[in-house]
Amino acid sequence: MSGVTNQGGVQAEFDGLLGRFRLKVSLTIPPKGITALVGPSGAGKTSLLRAIAGLTRLPGRVLMDGAVWQEGRRFVPVHKRALGMVFQESSLLNHLSVKDNLLFGYRRSTEPKTMGLDEIVPLLGLEPLIGRSTDNLSGGERQRVALGRALLSQPRLLLMDEPLSSLDAESRAEILPFLEALHRTLSIPVLYVSHDAEEVARLADHVVTLNAGQIVGTLQRATPDPLSPLSADQIRDLARQALEAGIKPNPAAR
Amino acid sequence: MADVIWTTLKLASLTTLLLLVLATPLAWWLARQKVWWKEIIAALAALPIVLPPTVLGFYLLLLLAPSSPMMELLRPFGIQSLAFTFPGLLIGSMVYSLPFAVQPIRNGFEAMGDRPMEVAATLRATPLNAFFTVAVPQARRGFLTAAVLVFAHTVGEFGVVLMIGGGIPGQTEVISVKLYQLVESLQFGEAHRLAAGLLVFSFVVLLTMFLTERRARKTAP
Q1: Residues in chain B closer than 8 A to A55 (CB atoms)
Q2: What is the predicted pLDDT for the residue at A229?
Q3: pLDDT tens column, A193-213
């Protein structure tokens, strides 16, 4: 699979109120690899993801590969942003078959088609599901379809909002290898919200910790090569630190 | 007899078709808006449920009569009056059945929640495209209920059609009005045929709706 390569990554800055909650962040997502966004519940992880996607409008600025998605009064609507989003709970369109769900964004995307069904279906093990309706799929299967659907829309940024949190341990174990495979093949930035240390350790290249609407820690992995086995322990340590920092904000990490 | 049935079916079909088209944007707006005062609009649109048909018929008659301000506006187009005409009857039927279209469709849109439209937007669907390819199919049961209710309600209406239509044979005379006239003139045999026919028809319509809903529930949770 020849994904789109990016130089710029994503720059996002927000300072705004959601009800009484204030989100004030400045975040850079590297052009490649998985950036984990961790922190306690209520920290604003989902809000930040939604603001970057344009699903929630907050005062701020979003640059994608140097192109403006949001700046001042300029606000590119969600459907014109080349992004893929995987929601926390299953969000398959139940009036469409698995195949039509997968192709929903593919058919509408105006980006060059770098990923097709031929690549995504085997990558996510969707062969047995492709001809089925969305009923009677397991939670893990539904999230795999949702992920495939997001990827087929030819995103230049993939946003994942705790995609495994609504799954039981078995489904989680089933889907993680697919995510790791994806990690190796994908050449677009991924922002991955999680509060699971194991997930972060296995997937993340960078870890950003959010607490009470603010970024309290940013950790980069030592080596840029996501395959390097040397760094696995390091990542795990970084992830643990980050998670601890999120749960109990550590002044040293600021 | 045949022209009465034809007028009734024509009225009910056209009312259903036009009302589904017109009620959908209103139902969508009511389902998606967050402002409290939308309920004022919702209450206005629901008024025909509680108003006696004669009250509604009376005001509609005034509105469609030659001297009304609305007719003044239409006069340049060569339309003098819509009272006691089929188009007038159609307008009256649409107003009378409006809540039966708006409510089920609004419920359908509300039951869907915000998520499917968000998903569609993240998959590059423009708002209009998402409306037709996601919202409408997701709310299909609401549309089905609305269509059946409006159709059946129009077939069964009496007060409004009598006030606005006047029961002119071949133009505005529908089954329910004809039935009344038959009973008044003591033609019980004819009246029986019409009444029983309407009864069976209504039952078949409702049964079909329930069976279709049952099947829809099975295929979509």
Answers
A1: 118, 121-122
A2: 47
A3: 988 888 888 889 999 999 988
CA distance B164 to chain A (A): 42
Mutate to test the interface with A, among B123, B143, B219 (most CBs of A within 10 A): B123
Tell me how far apart the alpha carbons of residues A146 and A140 are, in angstroms, rounded to a whole number: 10
pLDDT digits (tens, 9 = 90+) for A129-140: 998 999 889 888
What is the DSSP-derived secondary structure letter of residue B132? I
- Average predicted confidence (pLDDT) for chain A: 84
Closest CA to A105 of B129, B112, B190: B129
Q: Contact A189/A9 with Cβ under 8 angstroms?
A: yes
CA A83 vs CA A110, A178, A190, B202: distances in Å = 12, 20, 10, 51
User: Nearest residue on chain B to A149, judged by CA atoms?
Assistant: B123
Q: How far apart are the first and last CA of chain A?
A: 38
B-chain CB neighbours of A78 within 8 Å are: 118, 121-122
Quote the radius of gyration of chain B (alpha carbons, Å): 20
Q: For the beta carbon of residue A150, count every other beta carbon within 10 angstroms.
A: 26
CA distance B122 to A190: 15
Beta bridge partners of A67: A64
* Residue among B119, B127, B140 minimizing CB distance to A93: B119
Predicted-complex ipTM score: 0.82
Q: Would you call A145 helix, strand, or coil by DSSP?
A: helix
Rg (CA), chain A: 17
| pLDDT tens digits, A144-193 | 999 999 999 999 999 999 998 888 888 888 888 888 888 888 889 999 99
d(CA B192, CA A175): 67
Cβ distance A79 to B140 less than 8 Å, yes or no, reads no
